[in-house]
Amino acid sequence: MMTVSTEIELRPVPGPRGLPLLGNLPAFGKDPLSFFSSLRDEYGDAVTWSLGSRPALFVAHPAHIAELMAEVEHTFEPGDVGWTFAKVCGESILRSRGAQWRRKRAMVQPTVRPKQVRGYATTMVECAQQRGNGWREGGRIDVGREMERITQRIVSRTLFGNDLGARADVLGESLSAIEWEMGAEVRSLRLFLPPWVPSAARRRLLAELAVVDEEVGRLVRTRRQAMDRGEEREREDLLSRLLAARDGQGQRLSSKEVRDEAVTLWIAGNGTSTTALTWTWYLLARNPGARTKLTAELQRVLGDRSPSFEDYESLTYTRQVIKESLRLYPPAWVIPLRAKAGARLGGHAIRAGDAVWCSQWVTHRDPRWFTDPLAFRPERWDGESTANTSWQTWFPFGTGPRTCVGARFAQVETALVLATLARRWHLEVDPGEVVPQAVQLLQPSTPVRATVRAAAPPST
């Protein structure tokens, strides 16, 4: 077990007074980003508040966040974020606890290790190329929608190979609708509805989920039957690796467990990368100096060819652009946890059952850790960060035992997709500020529209 302790004492103070029964839910639901930012700015680094009748603690100091995340699976556990989340992800690695979580992580993590991600790099580049080939000088695009089509194709091929065919779009549309419902529930009174209470939103969710379960279930059954008959050819996709995985006792994942992991990997892989790439194009369009530096690096490293996995480490500035984008607009914007018996944080006892929240959005934009925090400056990641690296100041994929197993996949994917497209095209995003909306992920509240321009070579 990893243990992190801090000498910075945790001293919680009461936050804003809430309403009877609802607590601070109305303010949180209206604008979670402003709500959490105001807790830090107006009250401090440790603030008590309430989500409905549930007592909660918000922590913002990186030292406490590092300690908190290191204690997950020991004295803290991931919080349950609603009926919808449970229905969609089942008992996947995201929702498992204790021995079950350790078993599943040991079986799932090898499917996305660096060696496997290396094998997926060609698919990432090919999918970006295919979409980019359809762009034309002066053409108009919805950036988010274009990025979603690319990442959906990537996750479809890396997860299921080519087995979905034309059904990949159907599955993708259903999963996109499901992601929206998951985020909407967290910010509304639906979060407190008992599981047996019907609602229009739940009916919509179940209809989309039926499509997903039919498609994924069919693939799992077909592959498993072929494997049991010894007829399944060797494949490199994630589904085959999940089906072939064995735990320490030689047991494999059940068909339901494979379904849960496959759906979770799809949602995490597609939504996170779509959102990250959309915000990255938006930031590059608003910062022409950074776009010029990116173009210069792509010309120097790639010239007239497309990137490969071997180029990833050489694309230093490209990776800095992605890292800075993830700092300013982290797709996963909040982490809810729950205290177990004996929980302590910063020397302060936390009552078992209480929720403890931290937010990437708040900490990533804190002027104490990042100079000029609202500015897009990829150069801040050139060598030593301006942040205190002994604390948790940048954690878009979480940290500690529960770090996202697909973090490496997502970082390689976003960098290679960006490099593939930016080598040929510049996206001239329409003027005006795009406001982030905190749903399941940190998404633009309005479509990011752009005019496609041929990427001009850097001036000499």
UniProtKB/TrEMBL annotation:
Q: Which InterPro entries match?
A: Cyt_P450 (IPR001128), Cyt_P450_CS (IPR017972), Cyt_P450_E_grp-I (IPR002401), Cyt_P450_sf (IPR036396)
Answer whether the UniProt record assigns the keyword Iron to this protein.
yes
Which domain of life does this protein belong to? Bacteria
Q: Which GO terms describe its molecular function?
A: heme binding; iron ion binding; monooxygenase activity; oxidoreductase activity, acting on paired donors, with incorporation or reduction of molecular oxygen
Cofactor(s), names only, from the UniProt record:
heme
Q: Which positions in this protein are listed as binding heme?
A: C404
Q: Does the keyword Membrane apply?
A: no
* Keywords, ordered alphabetically: Heme, Iron, Metal-binding, Monooxygenase, Oxidoreductase
Q: Which Gene3D superfamilies match?
A: Cytochrome P450
In terms of Pfam families, this protein maps to: p450 (PF00067)
- Family named by the database record: Belongs to the cytochrome P450 family.
Protein name in UniProt? Cytochrome P450
Top-level taxonomy:
Bacteria, Bacillati, Actinomycetota, Actinomycetes, Kitasatosporales
